[in-house]
Specification:
kinase activity, five-stranded mixed sheet, Beta-Lactamase, transmembrane, alpha+beta, about 20% strand, five-stranded antiparallel sheet, HATPase_dom
């Protein structure tokens, strides 16, 4: 997917968005809980007030009525019920009466569909009456059942058999409850909008140190080890900033010490190499004379002289290579380019080293390139010499060109041998200084710096060098030699590009 870096899991929201959403979620939960509790208490208060008023008033009216028993005149009973209904509180009632099979009311219908059988059972069994809240066809009602009684003895009562019911619509109370719901809803939405501002401010205050830490980490990653983060406050983020600064200080001190140690080592190698050149020049002159006279010496002495001469030559090569690598380390190496025929330059290198008969070449004529002849000669000599030492016969040097995506041309040179190849674990280190591809080989005929110097010279030309093993030509023979292949790619106009 575009926009994602490799190795980084995709996240649906950034930290800023998650912080704001978490803050708003807390605000929603708090506002919702508060609104719910407030609404419930206000609703219960509204309904309880109306309910208590109605029940108390109805009980009082029932206790004050005087109805002769047994009741036989429904019209007279209805008149009594209408009188009670007119005194209803807090709203007008419709009063119903049941006495045996007799039914009467203060309204037009003698019976009510709102009065439930459950209320009738409770009312008959409880002398002080009972009540229910009922919703019928979407309309809320309060229904109250109250039996008429007469006192018997001290504290005793008996039911007369006449039961009165009051039915009161609670439209006003429902309107008040609906208004509470609307107020809670209308108050919550602006509250959440207002809560967004402190959420953004809180997210900003939390993310500021995180952004500073990210910028500081990137700065240190680019090599600026003196980067520090301003410490604000005394919270956990301030502790994180202080810890980062302390760690950065330790890293800076360690890097400075390593750089000083590396500089001392480079200077030491350069100074020692430079100082060794003068006595080595004298030693080489002496060994040349001794080599000439070795034939006149006894065999043991002659062998010792030739050994000293060979080892002195190796030491001279090592000193020259150390001086060369120290120039690269000191950024003192320069590129002096000239337009040359690449095939002729390679052929001249092979001819000067007397390798013409040992190396097969594929060098098409007419390939012109801007190169530093001396440094390119070192590249060719080191690669071919390395192939002859470790690959034996069958060394091939190929030359060609290819175009890059930007349209510029590349000079491509391959040096291949038919030796045992390079072990896979050695490939990543093949250009390291003094690296031994064979652990058991403690000595070599070279200085151990040849491939490192080769790589530096190729880089100085603005090119690249790669080492690999050639594919097997004999698939049926697991022991068949693959051979190593070194590929050098240098821009055809190396002198015009930054090194």
């Amino acid at each position: 997917m575009k926009g994602l870096r490799p190795g980084r899991p995709a996240t649906p929201f950034k930290l800023r968005t998650r912080l704001v959403l978490a803050f708003l979620l807390v605000a929603v939960v708090s506002a919702g809980t508060t609104a719910t509790l407030t609404f419930r208490e206000a609703r219960n208060s509204v309904l309880r007030t109306a309910q208590d008023t109605a029940v108390s008033s109805f009980r009082e009216q029932v206790q004050q009525i005087g109805v002769g028993l047994p009741v036989e005149d429904a019209d007279a009973l209805s008149e009594v019920l209408r009188d009670i209904a007119r005194k209803g509180k807090p709203h007008t009632w419709i009063v119903f009466a049941e006495y045996g099979t007799l039914r009467a009311s203060s309204g037009t219908s003698p019976t009510s569909t709102v009065i439930t059988p459950e209320l009738r059972r409770k009312t008959v069994g409880y002398p002080h009456g009972s009540f229910e809240r009922v919703v019928k066809d979407g309309v809320p009602y309060l229904t109250i059942g109250m039996p008429t009684v007469f006192k018997v003895g001290v504290g005793g009562v008996l039911s007369t058999g006449l039961v009165l019911y009051a039915v009161m619509r609670m439209d006003q109370e429902q309107t008040q409850v609906d208004a509470l719901i609307t107020a809670a809803r209308d108050g919550a939405v602006p509250g959440l909008a207002i809560a967004l501002l402190p959420a953004l401010l809180a997210a900003r205050s939390v993310l500021r140190p995180v952004r500073e830490l990210r910028r500081a980490a990137r700065s240190m990653g680019s090599g600026r080890f003196d980067t520090r983060i301003p410490v604000r406050g005394s919270d956990e983020l301030a502790d994180l900033a202080r810890t980062f600064n302390e760690s950065a200080g330790e890293i800076e001190r360690s890097v400075d010490e390593l750089q000083r140690a590396e500089a001392r080592a480079r200077r030491f190698a350069a100074d020692v190499s430079h100082e060794l050149r003068t006595p080595l020049a004298g030693m080489l002159a002496v060994t040349e004379v001794l080599d000439e006279d070795a034939g006149r010496l006894d065999p043991d002495t002659a062998q010792a002289v030739r050994l000293i001469s060979a080892e002195t030559g190796k030491l001279a090569v090592l000193v020259d290579d150390l001086l060369e690598i120290s120039r690269f380390d000191a950024r003192a190496a320069e590129l002096n380019t000239d337009e040359v025929d690449a095939a002729e330059t390679i052929a001249k290198t092979l001819q000067n080293r007397r390798w013409t008969d040992q190396v097969r070449t594929e060098l098409p004529a007419g390939i012109r390139a801007r190169l530093d002849p001396r440094r390119f000669d070192i590249v060719v000599a080191n690669l071919v010499g390395n192939a002859l030492r470790h690959g034996g016969v069958g060394v091939t040097v190929r030359l060609r060109t290819r175009d890059r995506e930007d349209g510029t041309g590349l000079l491509v040179m391959e040096v291949a041998d038919r030796g045992p190849g390079i072990r896979p674990e050695a490939l990543p280190h093949i250009f390291d200084r003094f690296y031994k591809a064979e652990a058991a080989r403690t000595r070599s005929t070279g200085s151990g710096l040849g491939l490192a110097i080769t790589q530096e010279n190729v880089r100085l030309h603005g090119g690249t060098i790669h080492a690999a093993n050639a594919p097997r030509e004999h698939a049926g023979d697991p022991a068949a030699a693959t051979g190593a292949v070194f590929t050098v790619e240098i821009p055809l106009n190396a002198g015009e590009e930054p090194a």
